[in-house]
Design a protein that fits this description.
A hairpin with a 4-residue loop joins strand 7 and strand 8. This protein has about 450 residues and is an alpha/beta fold. The strands form 4 sheets. Strands 1-2-3-4-9-10-11-14 form an 8-stranded parallel beta barrel, surrounded by 5 helices. It has a two-stranded antiparallel sheet with strand order 5-6. The longest helix is centred in the middle third of the chain and has 19 residues. It is globular, with a radius of gyration of 23 Å. The model has no long low-confidence stretch (mean pLDDT about 95). The chain has 2 domains: about 325 residues, TIM Barrel, CATH 3.20.20.30; about 70 residues, no CATH class. Helix content is about 40%, strand content about 15%. The protein is built from 15 helices and 14 strands. It binds flavin mononucleotide. The site of flavin mononucleotide has 17 residues, from helix 6.
Length: about 450
């Protein structure tokens, strides 16, 4: 039998204008209403997916980038995914929902209380995708912290949130109808926390969980991010090139960090972001790949728009047939994202913008591992190989949450994965944490 794996969906544009700018937007759904998300999450649950992760950004960023972020809706608007979560729980019974939560935005007591409530409301299906971006600090009247300090704050935040969740000690909840005793207040942990970033008192006024704490997902891929995952998280949302060796290495770094603090590989699920393009035949795959080698200017412009939003630098007005001057990127722009634009080229001097964008447009066949276009059987072969040869825990599919994308990705693939025993066919009843630890 192949290794059974866990699957999820990363709702990559958050609670925002899903699919804007794509031809299928003509479907004309109302992204500000819950119905599209409710319909989609039901389908993900039927598919046997363990969790849905909802991307978020707290604000539109700097005054200089407002237009870049909003004009094609790549960076906003976005509504608060936490508010959407109860609507999604209401129409499902097994799938876990994990909205993105920025540790800098919620005072720990408020976070512990709100998340405890959602964990109870959902029968233990709540989780948080914990991020540390500080680009929105000024909207909260906070000083922006540096990269590692933001992780330090998130660690303290999580420790104190967990302490609050556990502030009802063994036997504190009595609920004895015969004596009329509801609780034993002497068993509550009325602690005082005075840390580097937070000062607050316990205990929390919420009752303990039946099936463990809400699941903590983390997506940071820097060395500090991987250590955070190993030492703190239940799930790592991993973004890395999907080669057997890279996946093994990425897993190894997180597991080493986990073992250094007495945890083990069994305590964490490392799930890789994956966006295959599923087609109906090998011939169609060849056609899609061949067409991608000669993109029109409209395709290049669409890629330039997405890159401009990520890089907070407008590429769309530049001459396609000249190299880029790297000084156009501000100091604050992530070096990793800039490197992402360069792809296989060593420096901006080596290639014109057209060549860089054309390289981004290029697709490849999943069957020869040169890309992600393939039939459902070929994509299932790929998934199975990562489980068996890299001990992979699973994948998080990514894309705009839209009925069309979802059906394209799942309708043919899910039956194949089920038949092969890679994807779960039934659920336990212990919530998200139990599902993630079932195998
Ligand atoms: C797959 C993936 C998804 C992410 N999703 C979000 C998100 O929804 N919101 C956010 O503010 N940051 C998000 N991030 C960014 C990281 O959580 C983190 O804030 C930032 O990358 C710093 O971490 P790093 O330097 O360790 O990668 C995501 C990163 C990755 C790789």
């Amino acid at each position: 039998m192949p290794r059974q794996q866990h699957f999820g969906w990363f709702f990559a544009r958050g609670f925002g204008p899903q699919g804007w700018g794509r031809p299928t937007y003509d479907w004309n759904h109302r992204w500000t209403r819950p119905e599209l998300y409710q319909q989609s999450v039901r389908e993900l649950e039927q598919a046997g997916f363990d969790l849905l992760i909802i991307e978020d950004a707290l604000s539109l960023g700097n005054p200089q980038t407002l237009n870049l972020r909003t004009r094609r809706a790549y960076g906003g608007p976005k509504h608060d995914p936490l508010m959407l979560v109860p609507y999604l729980f209401d129409v499902t019974s097994h799938i876990g929902i994990t909205p993105t939560v920025n540790a800098g935005a919620y005072p720990p007591y408020l976070a512990a209380r709100q998340f405890a409530t959602l964990q109870h409301l959902s029968d233990d299906r709540f989780g948080l995708n914990l991020v540390t971006d500080t680009g929105s600090a000024r909207h909260f009247g906070l000083e922006p912290l540096g990269h590692d300090a933001a992780y330090d704050r998130a660690e303290e935040w999580l420790a104190v949130v967990r302490r609050l969740w556990h502030s009802w000690g063994e036997g504190a909840l009595v609920q004895d109808r015969a004596t009329g005793r509801f609780a034993d207040g002497d068993r509550l942990d009325a602690f005082q926390h005075d840390g580097e970033y937070f000062s607050l008192a316990g205990p929390l006024n919420a009752v303990p969980f039946d099936n463990g704490d809400p699941v903590v997902v983390s997506p940071g891929g820097s060395p500090r991010g991987l250590t955070f995952a190993g030492t703190q998280s239940d799930v790592q949302l991993a973004l890395a090139p999907l080669h057997i060796e890279t996946v093994r290495d990425y897993r190894g770094r997180i597991i080493a960090a986990a073992e250094a603090v007495g945890r083990s590989a069994a305590d964490i699920r490392i799930l890789f972001v994956f966006a295959p393009e599923i087609v109906s035949s090998a011939e169609e795959a060849d056609r899609v790949v061949a067409a991608s080698l000669h993109p029109g200017d409209d395709v290049l412009l669409a890629i330039a728009e997405g890159q401009s939003s990520d890089l907070e630098t407008d590429l769309t007005g530049l001459d396609l047939d000249r190299p880029i001057d790297p000084v156009i990127f501000g100091e604050h722009v992530s070096r990793g994202t800039i490197k992402g634009l360069l792809g296989r080229v060593d420096s901006f001097a080596d290639a014109t913008l057209r060549q860089l964008l054309t390289a981004k447009a290029k697709k490849g066949r999943i069957s020869d591992r040169s890309g992600f276009v393939g039939t459902a059987e070929e994509v299932a072969d790929f998934i199975e190989q990562f489980g068996d040869e890299a001990d992979n825990d699973g994948f998080i599919f990514s894309g705009d949450l839209h009925p069309v994308t979802l059906h394209r990705m799942l309708d043919e693939l899910v039956p194949v994965l089920r038949r092969r025993g890679v994807l779960r066919a039934e659920w336990g009843d212990g919530g998200l944490r139990a599902n993630l630890h079932e195998f």
